[in-house]
Amino acid sequence: DQQVKQNSPSLSVQEGRISILNCDYTNSMFDYFLWYKKYPAEGPTFLISISSIKDKNEDGRFTVFLNKSAKHLSLHIVPSQPGDSAVYFCAASAGSDKLIFGTGTRLQVFP
Amino acid sequence: DTEVTQTPKHLVMGMTNKKSLKCEQHMGHRAMYWYKQKAKKPPELMFVYSYEKLSINESVPSRFSPECPNSSLLNLHLHALQPEDSALYLCASSQVREGWETQYFGPGTRLLVL
């Protein structure tokens, strides 16, 4: 039972354009959501998070949107840069120490 | 500061060997975690220590044995591993950020079991 889903395994975006990565979840008890970026053979790097009491959170080029009624969140990267090329994981928590990860989306930003 | 360090960076071991992975954080984080990650898969939680006590064991085989000697250190002892245990082993610790526990990961140890 995949509680957190990233339905797009890959995404290709031109440099300077917007990248939109999507994530859907099924468990209505999730109240905290995180995005991590991962390069090959490295640990995930925390990017940005959002709690269930908000619908938007911004940090520089990164914005996360949460639609609780649709059980959907998205990460927007504007403008996209070649260094953003990596695998992005969304993760969710229901108030415990357990994070449930999505399967990841590979983002490629080309010049 | 959210730095988690892990040693060694790479490890090759035979199925009869005993080895240990080490993780450190000096940020006073309450909880520390071990994850296993296979290629093209998300991280899988193995163990959680909270205030130096084991709080979650995700039914991990006994050939993996965690240890938390103090609040800054987390070890993972390995014994009689199988080739399918080859993976990236990640340590994380968590910090309250805007009222919510946020996990920060170390760089990982890439383990190859021959």
Give a description of the structure.
Chain A has 111 residues and is an all-beta fold. Chain A has strands at 4-5, 10-14, 19-25, 32-38, 45-51, 56-59, 62-67, 72-77, 86-93, 99-101, 105-110. Chain A starts with a strand and ends with a strand. Chain B contains no helices and eleven strands. Helices cover 0% and strands 61% of the residues of chain B. In chain B, a hairpin with a 2-residue loop joins strand 5 and strand 6. With 114 residues, chain B is mostly beta strands. In chain B, strands 2, 4, 5, 6, 9, 10 and 11 form a seven-stranded mixed sheet that branches. In chain B, strands 1-3-8-7 form a four-stranded antiparallel sheet, with no helix packed on it. Chain B starts with a strand and ends with a strand. The chains are: A mainly beta (111), B mainly beta (114). Chain A binds chain B through residues 32, 34, 36, 41-46, 49, 51, 89, 93, 97-99, 101-104, and chain B through 2, 4, 6, 31, 33, 40-43, 45, 48, 50, 55-56, 88, 90, 92, 94, 97-108, 110.
